[in-house]
């Protein structure tokens, strides 16, 4: 009888433990796009853009910080027309309300007032609350008074302040895919030229004060009693077609298929993330004017 009870207990544990793990950690995506690109040193691909006194490089790891005087930002040496762009990032714990740490694509300097942008942004938070990872897409729409954001926000399945994790944007002429540790969290398809970024963009990173909106719509501001606010970047990866590549340069893919798209396993992982960790989707926001975002229903 004791052996039967022991066997029953082991069986129950085998059922409970995997299910509890799967409830909090995404299934494996199978294919890992980051493995197709070599890491590079910061200065091989990037330069300081602003706040040089708030930026340091040590053994290929970049540290940038914000205090009451300024933040800091960097920019890729060359623009791209498609590619894979990733970095491993570690965020600051504690009170970081109002502070944005960003890794993104943009052509704002080439097209002021009408630029395209693809964002991964970490929205700072208050004690005891998780960071929000915001993904966003702008198309020819900033600075003209008619900014149309396409935000999807997530609470991650891990604490991004404890270790480095790899965040990436894959941009091809057909789609945008946002990845966290190679797990796809969002796929944005090209449904029309009017709703997709097609002009060359540079890769940027920054840390800055966005107290007016970053944390609970501006309810909580940056508190410089907790300065400096620090972000660390390493394991930089960038590959694809630069703006100077020949016309026959082939866009990279997020899947084993050269044509792009995601595998069934990648789609499963993405659906899991969106079921468990998505906290905002602009397409489901009834307060939005969706005539301005036709891709939601197209």
TrEMBL record:
Catalyzes xyloglucan endohydrolysis (XEH) and/or endotransglycosylation (XET). Cleaves and religates xyloglucan polymers, an essential constituent of the primary cell wall, and thereby participates in cell wall construction of growing tissues. Contains at least one intrachain disulfide bond essential for its enzymatic activity. GO terms for cellular component: apoplast. This is Xyloglucan endotransglucosylase/hydrolase. GO terms for biological process: cell wall biogenesis; cell wall organization; xyloglucan metabolic process. It comes from Acer negundo. Residues 1-23 form the signal peptide. It holds the Pfam family Glyco_hydro_16. InterPro entries: Beta-glucanase-like, Beta-glucanase/XTH, ConA-like_dom_sf, XET_C, XTH. The active site is at 117 (nucleophile), 121 (proton donor). Its EC number is 2.4.1.207. SUPFAM superfamilies: Concanavalin A-like lectins/glucanases. Keywords: Apoplast, Cell wall, Cell wall biogenesis/degradation, Disulfide bond, Glycosidase, Hydrolase, Secreted, Signal, Transferase. GO terms for molecular function: hydrolase activity, hydrolyzing O-glycosyl compounds; xyloglucan:xyloglucosyl transferase activity. Its main location: secreted. Belongs to the glycosyl hydrolase 16 family.
């Amino acid at each position: 009888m004791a052996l039967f009870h022991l066997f029953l207990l082991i069986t129950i544990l085998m059922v409970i433990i995997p299910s509890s793990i799967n409830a909090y950690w995404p299934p494996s995506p199978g294919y890992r796009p980051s493995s197709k690109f070599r890491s590079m040193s910061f200065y091989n691909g990037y330069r300081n853009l602003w706040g040089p006194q708030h930026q340091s490089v040590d053994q290929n790891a970049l540290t940038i910080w914000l205090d009451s005087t300024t933040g800091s930002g960097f920019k890729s040496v060359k623009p791209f027309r498609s590619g894979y762009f990733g970095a491993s990032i570690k965020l600051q714990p504690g009170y970081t309300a109002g502070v944005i740490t960003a890794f993104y694509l943009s052509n704002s300097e080439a097209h002021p007032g009408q630029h395209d942008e693809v964002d991964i942004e970490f929205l700072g938070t208050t004690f005891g609350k998780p960071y929000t990872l915001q993904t966003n897409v702008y198309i020819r729409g900033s600075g003209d008074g008619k900014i149309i954001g396409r935000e999807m926000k997530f609470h991650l399945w891990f604490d991004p302040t404890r270790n480095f994790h790899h965040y990436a944007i894959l941009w091809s002429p057909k789609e945008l895919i946002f990845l966290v540790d190679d797990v796809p969290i969002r796929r944005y398809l090209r449904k029309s030229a009017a709703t997709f970024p097609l002009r060359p963009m540079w890769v940027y990173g920054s840390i800055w004060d966005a107290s007016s909106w970053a944390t609970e719509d501006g309810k909580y501001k940056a508190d410089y009693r907790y300065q400096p606010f620090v972000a660390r970047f390493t394991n930089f990866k960038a590959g694809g077609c630069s703006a100077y590549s020949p016309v026959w340069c082939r866009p990279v893919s997020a899947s084993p298929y050269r044509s792009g798209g995601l595998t069934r396993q990648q789609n499963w992982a993405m659906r899991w993330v969106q079921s468990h960790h998505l906290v905002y989707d602009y397409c489901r926001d009834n307060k939005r004017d969706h005539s301005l975002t036709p891709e939601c229903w197209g």
